[in-house]
TrEMBL record:
Family: Belongs to the SMEK family.
Name of the molecule in the record: Serine/threonine-protein phosphatase 4 regulatory subunit 3
Pfam families in the cross-refs: EVH1_PP4R3 (PF22972), PP4R3 (PF04802)
Residue spans of biased composition, Basic and acidic residues class: 715-730
Family matches, as InterPro entries: ARM-like, ARM-type_fold, EVH1_PP4R3, P4R3-like_central_dom, PH-like_dom_sf, PP4R3-like, WH1/EVH1_dom
Gene giving rise to this polypeptide: LOC120019602
Cited function: Regulatory subunit of serine/threonine-protein phosphatase 4.
GO biological process, one term: DNA damage response
Single annotated GO MF: protein phosphatase activator activity
């Protein structure tokens, strides 16, 4: 059986800083004569006991091994060569870790065997007498020595700091670049390779003062030249300087009068090129050593934006040429690309400074300029203008909205900036509608109430939404209305369907976040009926967008929307789509069933009745879900409540256990009823109907107001009876002394009660409410009711209204509960 404790995967780190899997095997530790020390050995598991070696690594006493996540050991074997062992089991990892710690004399409880702090402390004591680092003479014969010194200093923070100070103080960089020119003239390949290692090491010193020297106008091209001679490339140097001087061209679309600004732009481009193209990809241990280089580029960009922003003449000329009709297309293309790059640089600014930057551009007329550019035929120019517009909207949407509303007071709807954006979204020629998706996102940001401000003098939300629905919504919905004039979409190709799906997505957003604006538009323009035409599309994603739009409307539970849906029978296309989908279990099926299920669960009464009354025949055979049967049950319960409101009121009281009593004293019958013990109640039990049933006593006695508490109390007591009590009750009720058990059969209709006589005394049984009074004719009372299983939150209100209405009837109510004596 294979020992899984020692089973590991071997990983090495490649140049892209990704871990490469070198294979799976079993690890062991032992003394290797060739390496003169204890070593880690990993043999491939596929080759058995004598399998090939995947790894043979000496456990170096000074190497930093690190244990991670209980099953991983990581270390660096040499420069830019990192290794890792990933164990299948924690026990195996712990076992090998103990061996490593034993060789290095460390406690196995630590997670890293060598700390840089310890090394630095040792160096600090060792170097107390020599605070500086002495560099070898900057000569061709000492380049190899200098390269080794730089490589050995990089792992130690203290030695790295000393090396940086020595290079800076002695003006060493310019001397090295002079040697580079000599080596290049002499075609000294070894010297050029050493200079590559030295200059690369100086970059990793991460010191701003050194970067300022290296990136100066007189030095930067030689620095790039040193980095062309990577030893890993053999004898084939890269041609970075040729690209920068011959291929890359600096285009000054607007003359820059400030030489300092021009030099800063050149420097930033070249340093960015060094970072992206020239320097090799740093390893895991080097990636933090270039943070100062990132900062150098970042602050250069901030400085460039600030200098351009302060140059009013430059910005004035820029926007004047952008909007000038005499400007040729190539020039305008360059101007727009420059402005786009300018706005991209602004993303490096702090939020407050970025806001100031875009306000400056707005004051210079960037939005009118974009309006002119968006009206041009050049697709590339329009694309760059769209990117600039997106920067503006994302940074300050209120500024854009303010411009749009001011513009509407002077221009027609057709040439408004926002309508140009909508038209470009509709007319996007890209088959995948990439530009339309971007523009739809910008429109969504502009109409989002969450980023609209409300001040003491005005409410941006009200003003802008009123403007949008008056001047823009008809442009946005035009493709939808044009394509849904019949029962099926007029055009059902993929690109048109994608466009309509985008428009529906935006309209759905409006339904969710706007109130009366979108409601008025949908109802007045009959938008929902047009949208539901799209459920017949051959593209499922478009049909689902239409269903999602309707689902959002229903989810608002707004009776205005509900009445609109019922009046126009707008569930009909949904039912047709459901039936035409057949028994297929797909998104269409699930989306439609979920819509009906929402109506059922939320008990939307008006829609429930509409669905059952108009579409039940088409849906009654759907048995694989209980949604439609549940809707029918809801409907029947509603009808029962409408036909028998008094029973519904009684049921509400039974559920809530809330009883009302009149403020008056108890009469004799009530006293007898309350004083009766439990046995007496079990022997002879009669419960009167609700108080709003009018029954006149046969003896002609006066009518009294019916109280609801007593019949309910007796009903709750009666629930305790056992089934075995039935015969006893019947027997006793048939042998009442001196009188027969009264029996009334009550049927309720509306607000009046019909009383009919029924003779069989055996009809009285526990669980059927009845009533009787002393001196009344021999009758038995039974009431037939249906018990509802669903609670309705409005029962109490209906009950109060019903009781209040019945108290005004001319027929006197039934007297207080009478008890049957045994």
């Amino acid at each position: 059986m294979t020992d899984t404790r020692r089973r590991v995967k071997v990983y090495t780190l490649n140049e892209d800083r990704q871990w490469d899997d070198r294979g799976t095997g079993h690890v062991s530790s032992g003394y290797v004569e060739r390496l003169k020390g204890m070593s880690l050995l990993v043999r491939a598991e596929s080759d058995g006991e004598s399998g090939s070696l995947l790894l043979e690594s000496k456990i170096n006493p000074n190497t930093a091994y690190q244990k991670q996540q209980d099953t991983l050991i990581v270390w660096s074997e040499a420069e830019n060569y990192d290794l890792a062992l990933s164990f299948q089991e924690k026990a195996g990892c712990d076992e090998i870790w103990e061996k490593i710690c034993q060789v290095q004399g460390k406690d196995p409880s630590v997670d890293i065997t060598q700390e840089l702090v310890d090394e630095s402390e040792e160096e600090r004591f060792d170097d107390m007498s020599s605070p500086g680092l002495e560099l070898p003479p900057c000569e061709l014969g000492h380049l190899e020595e200098l390269a080794e010194l730089v490589a050995s200093s990089l792992p130690s923070p203290l030695r790295r700091e000393k090396l940086a100070l020595a290079v800076e103080n002695e003006g060493y960089i310019r001397k090295l670049l002079e040697l580079f020119r000599q080596c290049e003239d002499l075609e000294n390949a070894d010297g050029l390779h050493h200079l590559y290692e030295i200059v690369k090491g100086i970059f990793l010193l991460n010191r701003t003062a050194l970067f300022e020297v290296m990136f100066s106008e007189e030095c930067i091209m030689d620095v790039i030249g040193c980095l062309e001679h990577d030893p890993a490339l053999g004898g084939l140097p890269r041609r970075h300087r040729d690209f920068l001087t011959k291929t890359a061209r600096f285009k000054e679309v607007i003359p820059i009068g400030d030489p300092e600004l021009r030099a800063k732009i050149h420097q930033t481009y070249r340093v960015q090129y060094i970072q992206d193209m020239v320097l090799p990809t740093p390893s895991v241990f080097e990636e933090n050593m270039l943070s100062t280089l990132h900062s150098f580029i970042f602050f250069n960009k901030v400085e460039i934006v600030g200098m351009l922003q302060d140059d009013e003449k430059f910005l004035t000329d820029l926007f004047a040429q952008l909007t000038d009709e005499a400007t040729d297309d190539d020039k305008r293309h360059e101007l727009v690309n420059f402005l786009k790059e300018f706005c991209a640089f602004s993303q490096t600014l702090q939020p407050q400074n970025r806001d100031t930057f875009f306000k400056t551009l707005s004051n210079m007329g960037i939005l009118p300029a974009l309006e002119v550019i968006l009206g041009m035929d050049d697709v590339q120019v329009r694309g760059a203008a769209t990117d600039i517009f997106s920067y503006l909207v994302e940074c300050n949407p209120s500024m854009v909205r303010e411009f749009i509303m001011q513009e509407s007071q002077q221009n027609d709807d057709d040439i408004l900036l926002i309508n140009l954006i909508i038209e470009h979204m509709i007319c996007d020629s890209d088959p995948e509608l990439g530009g339309a998706v971007q523009l739809m996102g910008l429109l969504r940001t502009l109409v989002d109430p969450e980023n609209m401000m409300a001040t003491a003098n005005k409410t941006e939300k009200t003003e802008f939404l009123s403007f949008f629905y008056k001047h823009c919504m008809h442009v946005l919905s035009a493709p939808l209305l044009a394509n849904t004039t019949d029962d099926k979409p007029s055009r059902d190709d993929f690109q048109t369907s994608q466009l309509l799906a985008l428009i529906l997505e935006l309209l759905t957003f409006c339904v969710e976040h706007h109130t009366y604006h979108i409601k008025n538009y949908i109802i007045n323009k009959d938008i929902l009926r047009r949208v539901l035409v799209l459920t017949a599309s051959q593209h499922a994603f478009l049909a689902l967008c239409a269903l999602r739009f309707m689902r959002r409307i229903i989810g608002l539970k707004d009776e205005f929307y509900n009445r609109y849906i019922m009046k126009n029978f707008l569930f009909e296309p949904v039912v047709k789509a459901f039936l035409s989908n057949g028994a297929r279990y797909n998104l269409m099926n699930s989306a439609i069933i979920e819509m009906f299920e929402y109506v059922r669960v939320e008990d939307v009464k008006s829609l429930t009745a509409h669905i059952v009354e108009n579409y039940w025949k088409a849906l009654e055979d759907v048995n694989y879900v209980q949604t439609f049967k549940g809707l029918k049950l809801r409907y029947e319960q509603q009808r029962e409540r409408q036909d028998n409101p008094k029973l519904d009121s009684m049921r509400s009281i039974l559920r809530n256990h809330r009883f009302r009593r009149d403020a008056r004293t108890l009469d004799d019958d009530e006293e007898m009823w309350f004083n009766a013990d439990e046995e007496e109640l079990e022997d002879c039990e009669a419960v009167v109907p609700p108080s709003d049933n009018k029954i006149t006593k046969a003896s002609g006695g006066t009518a009294e107001n019916e109280d609801l508490m007593d019949p309910i109390s007796k009903f709750m007591e009666r629930k305790k009876l056992k089934d075995s009590d039935d015969k006893e009750v019947l027997g006793k009720s048939s042998s009442l002394s001196g009188r027969q058990s009264p029996s009334f059969k009550l049927s309720f209709s509306g607000s009046t009660t019909k009383t009919s006589l029924s003779s069989p005394p055996a009809s009285l049984r526990p669980g059927s409410p009845g009533s009787g009074a002393k001196g009344s004719p021999p009758t038995a009372a039974t009431v037939t009711t249906k018990v509802g299983l669903v609670d309705y939150p409005d029962d109490d209100e209906e009950d109060e209204e019903d009781v209040g209405g019945e108290s005004k009837e001319e027929t006197p109510p039934l007297s207080k509960k009478s008890k049957l004596s045994s």
